[in-house]
Amino acid sequence: MTITITKTRSRKRKSRKRKTSDHTNLRLWSELPDDLLNLITKDFNVREYFLLGRVCKSWKSYTEAYMKDFLASQPPLIMILSRYAKKSCYLHNIYESTMYQAQLPNFSKRKCIGVTSGYMIMQNKLRRKSCIHPLLLFNPITGHELHFPSPICNITHFILVSSITHVKEHILIGLSAEVIQSCRSNDNHWSFCYVDQRPYYNSWKIVDGAMFKGKIYVLTDHGKIGVVNPSSLSVLELFEVKCIDYFLNYPKLVVSYEQLLLITTSSPANSTFEVYKLNILEKSCVRMWNLGDQALFLTTCGDSQGGFRIQKDHNSIHELNHSGCCLHSLDGKSKSVDPIRPRERDFKRFPKGVYWFWYFPHLACNTDSLY
């Protein structure tokens, strides 16, 4: 028995010696080079990318430094929220069938009325009774907030731009049928201008607007394209688009990379889309039969729309309505892609139902400048 015990002890000592090794060449996780982290985050989604920044301080610095490049590669997401959301909203990726939750600040007595340049537009429900920051713009990706006073009249289209003279100043442009309004983030009042001073029977109205190459373009109900003068807020008419009839084609202005597009459809019920490329210099439009590697994302209600280059379902139009997402091709064929709804108990206390918006991550860290 004594010999056996002695042998056992000697084996344990030998095994312990075998386990010891030199770890001087190993590096800590926090010291991984940026090139290796780029390979790791190449296939990450938005949620996984931000979870990476919570591991350690060095990885947080990495995610903040490369956030703009990462978000530029992310496809548009469907933002799902109650109109009176107070605590959170949902972001859904239709290509990966994944959904994650984004926390919101305290939005009591506020409702979401749209999305522009990566910011959610929250409006005070008691707008006429309160004069303290009735408009709150919140970026769910960066957590940045912008406050604006109550607008003079109701706004149908919001466009958020940055000032070219002041780095940290933003300008909120509000478009409605008859009035154009603007307000700076460092100011406390709105400037406004009526779009047409002619008699009612001969006047025209704004039906849509878009920011393109530092200028704001508007589309009128007479089928004309105009540009907004940022100093006086007046509209300068450029040319008439003869290929459309507003009352029959429901046109929309959409910006897709370096192109200003005009989208028309026969009717909301029977969505047969036609895409036209606008040439501002030549004052003309040409119909596009092929979008190439791009896809267009439209919303039936609201101004959350744009274009993006994707590998899957390119050369198509993604239409988002109250019932879900529908994929359309330029030849008239379509198929339904229903977003994943949140659990009923998440929204059971909201009687107004759930609203859908397209959210573009590549705009969350990049606001266009107004020239």
TrEMBL record:
Transmembrane segments: none
F-box domain: residues covered: 29-61
Residue spans of biased composition, Basic residues class: 8-20
Superkingdom of source: Eukaryota
Residues of the KIB1-4 beta-propeller domain: 95-300
Region Disordered, residue ranges: 1-20
PANTHER family: OS09G0392200 PROTEIN (PTHR45463)
Protein name: F-box protein
Species for this entry: Quillaja saponaria
Native organism taxonomy: Eukaryota, Viridiplantae, Streptophyta, Embryophyta, Tracheophyta
